[in-house]
Design goal:
alpha/beta; 11 strands
């Protein structure tokens, strides 16, 4: 038996920085257990060390050059290529028409990336990535995930999107962070999030921004701390 760990939704906001009080923290100030263990506020978990995690891309993504799959791979590679830790390595095993379970990876025959309308989760939701953990008490071992990308118009390339475009690369990199077992987000009131250049695992994507494509020192420190 396994248990489903729900992930926070990823929302979009306008590019302008909101005027809220923010807290400045060093990268080392973030405790990995808050995001990567069930005992933390996020309810996260971790894969076995150096785990090869294979996934399939469910049919339905629009045709595009470059392909959606190639950009999806780049987002996952940001985490796989982080060599200072012993976290999972993600591999795309290709496309599939097999029925999976985007809402509950515990019931799916494969780890999947899906193209779906996410309005049922809330207005402005860009992505959603729940993961599956062992049902054994106090065992936060991750053994599955699903990633859903909203069916909106995306910037699907590695250049620079306009100020009104949603960058697929950025959002997939963020969602791939949740696929590592990371649940929850950095606080939106921290300096690293209350900026036009937010850390990848901040809760709100700023439209037209490409900062999320690569991991910040805060993202790396938290990830490596868990692995």
């Amino acid at each position: 038996m396994n248990r489903l760990m729900d992930a926070a939704r990823t929302f979009a906001v306008a590019a302008a920085v909101s005027a809220v009080a923010s807290t400045a923290l060093t990268a080392s100030a973030h405790t990995s257990s808050v995001f990567y263990t069930g005992g933390g506020t996020g309810g996260g978990g971790t894969w076995p060390l150096y785990k090869d995690v294979r996934f399939l891309v469910r049919s339905g993504f629009p045709s595009h050059t470059p392909s959606y799959a190639s950009i999806i791979n780049k987002g996952f590679n940001q985490w796989s290529n982080e060599t200072s830790g012993s976290g999972p390595d993600f591999y795309n095993d290709g496309g599939t028409t097999l029925t999976g379970n985007a809402d509950n990876p515990c019931l799916s025959p494969y780890n999947g990336v899906y193209w779906r309308n996410l309005d049922y989760l809330g207005t402005g939701v860009l992505g959603f990535t729940p993961h599956c953990e062992s049902s054994v008490s106090n065992d936060d071992t991750v053994n599955g995930f699903s990633m859903s990308i909203d069916t909106r118009t995306w910037y699907v390339d590695t250049g620079t999107p306009t100020s009104t475009q949603y960058d697929l690369y950025s959002v997939v990199t963020h969602e791939a962070g949740h696929a590592t077992g990371w649940s929850g987000h950095f606080s939106s009131t921290e300096t690293i999030c209350d900026t036009d250049l937010p850390a990848t695992m901040c809760p709100y994507y700023r439209v037209g921004n490409i900062r999320w494509r690569t991991l910040s020192t805060h993202d790396v420190h938290t990830f490596v701390g868990a692995y």
